[in-house]
Amino acid sequence: MPRKANGRSSIYEDANGVWHGWVTVGVKANGKPDRRHRRGKSQTEVTKKVEALERQRAEGTVADAGKIPTVAEWIQTWLTDIAPRTASESTIESVYRPRMEIWVIPRIGRHRLDRLRADHLDALYTEIADAGLASKSVLMVHQQVSRCLKMAVRRRIIGVNVATLIDAPKHRDAEIEAFAQEEAKAILQESAKRRNGARWSVAFALGYRQSEALGMRWSYMDLEKRRIRVWQLKRRRFKHGCADPRECIKDRHRASCFAHCVNHARYCPERQGGDWVFRPPKGGKTRWSVIPEPLVPQLKAQKAAQAAERLAAGDGWEDWDLVFAGPTGKPIQAAKDWAEFKEMLAAAGLPDARPHDARHTAATLLLEQGVDVSVVQEILGHASLAVTKRYAHVTNKLTEDAAAKIGKALWA
């Protein structure tokens, strides 16, 4: 069959018995027709390939012309050039990159991006689950792979995101750990004896994340109106300043480190970065909190205590405008804050927990007090109502109250 003109698809057999198909899918940047070639051992095989390409043309899913990267190459492009526009450096380097370089690239990285199939992902998830990765982590790997492939589709490198063709790995959310009301009070009694004790009152009353509590600023607070704008204090990741990051920290690598790991940069003698930065809260939305009245005197006392420390430090004081700071005004290290919480739990005779569990407790107590779930979502800054609703089953108090009400309605 001869080639067909005017942009129509054509199928023909060459002198060697190989079948060829040509499909015009659009126009190149230089104005010339963008014609794609398919080949096969039979006319039937090539016809199917041509028809598939014509369907892609009709659906607008034909990838742009050019060299198609491997999965590994595209992942590195995504991590380096694309993900930083929506995710923090810390998230990319401590979460995204390890997942991709430890679990994904070694298993499917060699495939050309347009030849990645859904069954490749099925096999990937089965393999990493069998290797001991928790179900939630497997799900997060899937979500990350899907985001990465989605960007490849948007840029017309591939026509289909194969991650959307399979069911997401199953995961059952772990039970949320929250303190009982009396346990929370015991912790606050212990924190009242300590420097920066109001920091933990903020955690339980406002449900702030650790970075939000340690990032509170006086200039964003109005104690008379009882309003405060939520902000975060984050420390940038350290980066290597040496010529060979792998060799620099060779004694720091663990069994879980991937082959080309260049982490542990904080131990590099020539390290860079590590500076503190203020950022909007998680999600990027501006969020204001109403300060409960009993918390106002504590914050006023905190301000007075800090003024005395500023006076004592003299020229050694560093003004970061922080509500909770070190004795010379410097930001409090997250690890030190974490350790203090553990000390308070031990002093109060309570089991081990995390500072973030104070946030869980705030959500639970608000729901127990009958606050509407949408209001709780707004207070805590949850991205969706579904996240807030996870707290509804943490305690039996709500279901007990409901049972009492239905019992009263039927038999009282």
TrEMBL record:
Keywords attached to this entry: DNA recombination, DNA-binding
Biological process per Gene Ontology, one example term: DNA integration
Keyword DNA-binding included in the entry's annotation: yes
Statement: the UniProt record of this protein carries the keyword DNA-binding: yes
Domain of life: Bacteria
Entries under Gene3D superfamilies matching the protein: 1.10.150.130, Intergrase catalytic core
Residues passing through the membrane, by range: none
PANTHER family linked: INTEGRASE_RECOMBINASE PROTEIN MJ0367-RELATED (PTHR30349:SF41), PHAGE INTEGRASE-RELATED (PTHR30349)
Family recorded in the similarity comment: Belongs to the 'phage' integrase family.
Official protein name in the record: Site-specific recombinase XerD
Organism: Kribbella amoyensis
Highest classification ranks of the organism: Bacteria, Bacillati, Actinomycetota, Actinomycetes, Propionibacteriales
